[in-house]
Amino acid sequence: MIKKKSRDEIKHMRHAGHIVALVHKAMKENLHAGMSTKDLDDIAMDVIKSNRAIPTFLGYNGFPACICTSINENVVHGIPSKDEILQEGDIIAIDVGATYGGMVGDSAWSYAVGEISEEKQRLMRVTEESLFAGIKQMRAGNTLDDISKAIEAVAVREKMGIVRQYGGHGVGHTMHEEPFLYNYSVGNHTPIKAGYVIAIEPMLNLGGDDVEVLSNDWTVRTVDRKPSAHFEHTVLATDGEPELMTTIHEEFL
Question: What are phi and psi of 18, to 5 degrees?
């Protein structure tokens, strides 16, 4: 059952989303070749803690870090490590969750490490485009499948692989709430109502759709080893335009 969020819940989610956006700001400003993914995790932890929030991912089903760091062919759920060093030409998807006032904000973004190939640039550009195509459909009166179809249409047009085992989700008191949101059409005509909050998160690949989970039981990788990109915002449906929760909000600065 999908639950509408109250005014107070939305306020806390907006604040949590603001903190997540501050983490992404710090990632963009500090990320460079030669640093480890553990360095990024330490920066994220500092931002979250200094803003009196809780790192949502840490300990979630045993996950051992504050953020997920997934490089190149790794799709999602990469575990930060001091031994994993960023190289010029890499792309990295960084997924961040923060809990504030008992409510969760969740957002992922893909970043270039220095100069990257035209193929990787295109992958990132198309995946981000598919995210915002989906967000445009997150409005009262539409259905969940309207979001899924919009994401799929961009991927199909650009001949990108679609990660099918993972997708968006409701978010609120916990990181994963109903509904599950596919990044391709499955005919889910559940209506969207004002007050629904969903993390919309397309994951697209330069190659095929197929992915596999590594032996650490977390990191998901493309089977063909082609690069993957991941973009995500937590989005509130209103009676008007969708609201991005995971952006920097002036009221909390």
Answer: -60, -45
Give dist(CA 3, CA 155) in Å, integer. Answer: 30
In the chain, how many domains are there?
A: 1
Q: Is 52 exposed, middle or buried (0-12, 13-18, 19+ CB in 10 A)?
A: exposed
pLDDT of residue 160: 98
Q: Is the pLDDT of residue 253 over 90?
A: no
Provide the CATH number for the domain around residue 194.
3.90.230.10
Owner of token pair 């969740």: 106
Q: What would the 3-class secondary structure string for 73-112 be?
A: CEEECCCCCCCCECCCCCEEEEEEEEEECCEEEEEEEEEE
Sign of CA dihedral 18, 121, 92, 205: positive
Q: Is residue 106 part of a domain?
A: yes
Contact in structure between 48 and 98 (CB atoms under 8 Å) = yes
pLDDT digits (tens, 9 = 90+) for 71-99: 999 999 999 999 999 999 999 999 999 99
Residues in the chain: 253
Burial state string for 15-28 with b = 16 or more CB within 10 A and e = fewer than 16? bbbbbbbbbbebbe
Does 1 fall in a domain?
no
Q: Tell me, what DSSP letter sits at residue 122?
A: H
